[in-house]
Amino acid sequence: MTESYRMTDGLPAVIRQAKALEYVLENMTIYIREWEKIVGNYASSPDAVFWPIEQNWKSVYRLLNGEEGEALIDDAGRHELNGLVEYWDGRTVSDIRKKAFQGSPDLEKYWRYEGTMLWSQWSDQGVPNYEKVLKLGLHGIIHQAQQKIEEIESTIPNDYLQQKEFLQAVIIALEASIRWAERYAKRAEVLASEEKDEARRAELEEIARICRKVPAHPASTFREALQSFILAHLIGHQIEFITLGCGLRFDKVMEPFYQKDLQEGRITRDEAIELIIHTRIHLEELGQMYSPTLTQVYGGVQVLQSIVIGGIDSEGQDVTGETSYLLLDSVLALKTLQPSVVLRVHDGTPRTLIEKAIDVVKTGVGYPSFQNDKALIPLMMKWNCPLEDSRNYTISGCVYLDVAGKNILRRNATYFSLPRCLWWALHQGKDPKTGEPFGAPTKDPATFESIEDVMEAYLEQVRFFMEKQIEVENVTRSIFAEYYPRPFESALTDGCIERGEDMRKWRYRGRVESFSIAVGPTNVADSLAALKKVVFEEKAVTMSELVGVLDSNWEGQEELRQMMLAAPKFGNDDDYVDSIAYEVHRRTEEVVEQFSDTYGSDFHLDGSAVSATYGLSLDTPATPDGRKDGESFADGSLSPTPGRDVNGPTAVLKSCSKIDTLTTYNHLLNQKFTPQFLEGANREAFYNYLKTWSNLGVSHIQFNVVDRQTLLDAQTHPEEYTNLAVRVAGYSAYFIDLSKGLQDHIIERTEQGFGQGD
Prior knowledge:
The protein has about 750 residues and is of the alpha/beta class. It is about 50% helix and about 10% strand. The termini are far apart.
């Protein structure tokens, strides 16, 4: 990419991007491993990860030149790295942003992470229209772009030049992608000519045939469809620009190809499972170099992706097919961390599919997660998404709601620490160490007379920091739109060719594209409940005294801390705190949705906080729920604080059901069960538990199935647990790869079981 940028200085940005993609695809290392049946790579080796140096080089450069970098890069690589940095210094997104912030010290001040807002500008999130590639092929899409050029050349619209440049860039990108696939075909032919094993030679010849056909032309077979998807996905979501999500509705898209192959005697069930495994391996290998802070938030360098099965189509019909089961069987045959499988559940979901999903959950891989159509389709419609698109929703990344082909889901995002906002409210928006103002100037806590006073001060802090988020994000989005358009992904996005406009420059009507990711709402609710109980009702301590105790991190005040811990906690079916939790979610969302971005999209909260519940907690002092300085927040947006949900798993569901999805937002709920509660006589109880979850209208649930002793032993003997997977947030990770703090947080999650009040 850097070499291409050196050669294209002065060209329009969209043409530069297309030519950069073309140069990479023509010159990058490609390989076909001896076992592969589905091919494609985005880096020079399977253990390499992607580094988008054009966005920000400094944090990764410091890492690679430090002690840790000695194991990651050799002297030759370091010499090459220095040459890349020499070119990009002053040209990256971060550099351009810094220049844009000059003269606005507030923007630079709030851009810097201090514990309240963590900006994630380094990736988009969304789901392209993969079906468009499978049905039309890239040649078909090129034809659409050529037709649009003919149209504007006859009408000469006011933005003729911009439209033509964009359409030319689309053609450059798609033609380069076709040639990239042909490189794999040629490589397969060379390997076939050298192969002595007849069976493998035939496989390589088939790879060559398929790569000459797709993604250039429509796919005709199941294998062609999988191969076309992988190549398009690697280009759009890794090579052109890092994009989280995936979101392929696997059964809805792939079922027709599989059924056609079955009817024509071209494939067996076992052969199909093997091809799916090969496809999933490619998704498992995707990674990116994040900054150290974001690496902590994401729990590693993996690119978060999901594949969705189940649910209904735009006509309201169940989409379950044989491929729904094939995908789950492929996980039973080979567990991978990525992609996470998501099962959309509705009243017509076959019990056999849920039972198969339980089989996978029981393995401990951490998925499938379960998404509730009953809760989420109405939420999509509330967000002004048309009925047919709402029914056709998919899940991108953790729990992001998306519709395939309807533009970018998330143009950057902010991880928003809600407990930190409460902390600012208890300090009048000032840093207690310096006295300097940073948050909103709210009332002195000594004057608070009720929990409503605390709530209003908290919401004022949320409003203040949302204003800062809007200012910073709008600048960043404008930079990406101007300097880093996406011609390939735009070609796979509905409406871009028809408009002659890059996906970064417009918004699909009825699409929410702007989110603040809610971090720690349960801790806010538990804190407010503790304040109501201990301060305002029992009057065991004054607000001023409590703030001083919090600033000292409970030093010498363990008895008071235990009183705050003993106050009602969310997750126990206790209306005292559950009603407060609902108000926290609802009223915080009401504040956030008052804001909109430069494209006219309203902001909303989002529950997919990944590991930010741990990462951001490290920079949040003690809170009134009894939490100490640096202790982790409750994970997700609905999960109870670890160890505080003591009335059993159904009580957790009942608490969560009081947080109405329709008047709040999409949520994430983690539960931990020991393996025996998914087996034997308990199996039926677990199935009924999932039915209860669905009937109560809770939007999401996912499970860790592992016992505490296993996790403790893995901390002590990590070499014996290299394949132990756990569910962190909306993604799975290998337990031994997580930081000690994040490991401890997972260990402390409540182990649920039936018979505990259920």
